[in-house]
Amino acid sequence: MKQLNNRNVVITGGARGIGFAVAEACLRAGAGVVLVDLKAEDLTIAADRLQGGDAVHCHACNVADEEQVKALAQALKATPGSLDALVNNAGITRDNLFMRMTTDQWQSVIDVNLTGSFLMARHLVGLIRKSEWGRIVNLSSVAARGNAGQANYAASKAGVIGLTKTLALELARYQVTVNAVAPGFIETEMTQAIPEAARDEWLRKIPAARPGKPSDVADAVVFLLSDDAAYITGTVIGVDGGLGI
Ligand code: NAP
Hints:
The chain is α/β, with parallel strands linked by helices. The chain has one domain (8-239): NAD(P)-binding Rossmann-like Domain (Rossmann fold), CATH 3.40.50.720. Helix content is 44%, strand content 16%. Strands 3-2-1-4-5-6-7 form a 7-stranded parallel β-sheet, sandwiched between helices. α4 links the parallel β4 (85-88) and β5.
């Protein structure tokens, strides 16, 4: 019996990076996946790469737009089968030193990373609660403790931890667990965009002496989604090679 047999998992930002690796790991564990991302064409490419047949569904949706999230929830409601889990993975960066940060840079990151996680959980929780077994896993970051140049991102990822712990308290009685993973420096397009000197500085600080792979994070997410983690809720698991110690 595979870890996630017959479970259906919605993964935001599932078209690439960590979200795509989570989708691959969920499929390997026997789950069906619903990939949610901004661009339909990226979703089509991701679904082709996954080669999961009927176990893969895709929805284009901006998680920061409540009307789009409501429409997604309606579509999922009309889909046969249970909805068991949500992985709030979609995230963006708009880095700048605080003294230069624009309100637009601040707001766009809060909108996607924090409000997007709230909206997805808020509109999908009714479906997830239905089967008296549910999982929500939110992507925070080692940057939640503060990181120069990322006031917006750090605040959003610290907010995700507060959201996670509060939902864990409120949903435990429905057998829905809510946890977060806090990756360190993981090799994806997000970190490729970091200037070389800053990248080298991050890499020097990692006790494990290597950057993380998307699959390192995906393995932790699948554990939290599985029955093995049934009594774990409200926690934050660092996946960072020791960077967050
Ligand atoms: P990524 O490579 O940039 O991928 C993010 C995905 O999310 C992209 O497909 C992106 O679509 C999608 N997305 C962005 N805004 C969205 C929105 N409003 N609605 C729906 N989808 C949206 O990022 P990643 O490195 O895999 O990171 C995944 C998560 O882990 C993020 O929450 C990130 O903050 C967190 N994290 C990453 C690291 C790291 O080192 N990589 C470290 C700590 C935490 P587009 O391509 O169209 O923009």
